[in-house]
Design goal:
32% of the residues lie in helices and 27% in strands. The protein has helices at 4-19, 28-39, 100-116, 137-143, 204-217, 261-282, 301-314, 333-336, 368-383; strands spanning 45-50, 54-60, 63-73, 121-129, 154-161, 169-170, 174-177, 179-188, 192-193, 229-238, 245-246, 249-258, 285-294, 297-299, 341-348.
């Protein structure tokens, strides 16, 4: 188990990472800090540059056995921090308002325990993954040729979750996180003088019609089942910032969200068809681009059972939690694409914190220890 000194040092390490947040794809400094921390633990192998800035520390057991991967995230968010903490972000416009700094501290604590008592068999991979927030990181890591040598049989992850009792955990087998995708639509006609709008091909009315139309196609629900559809309009703009020009171009940004990948494909095609029908009827051209694409995340039943059993042994209390989560995760690719039995659980952040991605959100240091304890018990159960 972690000593008081361990917990103090891991807390200070989290604060150190918190001061220097880096967004998806830019995690060079963070990766180097992780590399130094892992190097001090003398892993059997230390891989860097995975899928960009990913770092993997490998701890080999004495006997053959399965490969068990534990994953956390390196990246922060493009959010101005407003916590007022004395270790607040020193990078303007960027902050760890999702708690990935805390996840890194937990995985580093797990590394400390493993280094003191390596697994009896198999191997443990501590995977510090880049670019989770934009949905690209897990796919890039898995596609990296170096990943083939550490491809896991089991994969586990966690995410801190406000509004859940501090230090507890929640998990269910099956649907865990929604699929989501950002869809950017560009409608193009041509401009005219504002005094002669009849000579323009303006997207104004089309934009006004499309916003409620696409929202009606994904109204959302409190029942997150196979029929769940949610379309959130996140941004719209039209024309120039001028009073003398009838607009000739508009953008509509939206996020599509479904519980399952096949439902996402149906919703995507329906939205595209609606935009194309509107554009065709008005003579506009329509272009589409896709951003922040996340597949649905599913918890494997056996991996889920492993977490539940480990929690009982480790004394980490299970609580209720709504599953699947509306929020998206790319961790599921370690199961669906890399072939591991994978599962992610929620780690309770308590009721005193703001919501994730709020500018005043702060990861609670008190959950570092139970997060390490639960991960460590999973490793012990599988590998001895």
């Amino acid at each position: 188990m972690l000593s008081n000194s361990d917990i103090h040092e891991l807390t200070e390490f989290r604060h150190h990472l918190h001061r220097h947040p880096e967004v998806s794809g830019e995690e060079a400094w963070t990766a180097e800090e992780i590399r130094k921390a892992m190097s001090a633990l003398n892993p059997s192998q230390l891989l860097t540059g995975l899928g960009g800035h990913g770092v993997a520390a490998v701890f080999e057991g004495a006997e053959p056995g399965p490969t068990v991967l534990f994953r956390c995230e390196l990246d922060a968010l493009p959010i101005e921090e407003l916590t007022g903490a004395d270790f607040a972000s020193e990078i303007p416009g960027k902050g760890h308002q999702c708690g990935h700094d805390g996840h890194m501290a937990i995985l580093t604590g797990l590394g400390r325990l493993i280094s003191r008592r390596p697994p009896a068999k198999g191997r443990i991979v501590l995977m510090y993954q880049p670019a989770e927030e934009d949905g690209s990181g897990a796919a890039l890591v898995i596609a990296d040729p170096a990943f083939a040598a550490i491809r896991p049989d089991w994969a586990f992850s966690l995410h801190n979750f406000p509004g859940t009792p501090l230090g507890t955990f929640a998990i269910e087998a099956g649907d865990a996180n929604c699929a989501s995708r950002g869809l950017k639509v560009v409608l193009t006609g041509h401009t005219s003088h504002a005094s002669t709008p009849e000579f323009a091909l303006s997207p104004a009315l089309s934009l006004a019609r499309l916003i409620p139309r696409v929202m009606e196609m994904g109204p959302g629900s409190n029942h997150l089942d196979g029929d769940f559809r949610l379309v959130t309009v996140t941004h719209a703009k039209m024309g120039e910032e001028a009073f003398g020009i009838t607009p000739g171009r508009a953008e509509l940004w939206m996020t599509l969200r479904c519980v399952r990948d096949e439902a996402m494909e149906d919703l995507l095609q329906a939205v595209i068809a609606a935009v194309e029908a509107e554009a065709s009827a008005t003579g506009l051209s329509a272009e589409f681009s896709h951003h922040d694409v996340f597949n649905a995340c599913t918890n494997d039943p056996e991996a889920t059972a492993r977490i539940i059993a480990a929690a009982e042994t480790a004394g980490v209390v299970r609580c209720d939690g709504q599953f699947p989560m509306r929020g998206s995760e790319d961790f599921g690719l370690f199961g669906s694409r890399a072939g591991a039995k994978s599962a992610m659980f929620r780690l309770g952040s308590g009721y005193e914190t703001a919501n994730l991605h709020n500018p005043d959100y702060m990861f609670p240091d008190a959950v570092i220890e139970p997060g390490v304890r639960l991960f460590h018990q999973v490793a012990r159960d599988l590998l001895g």
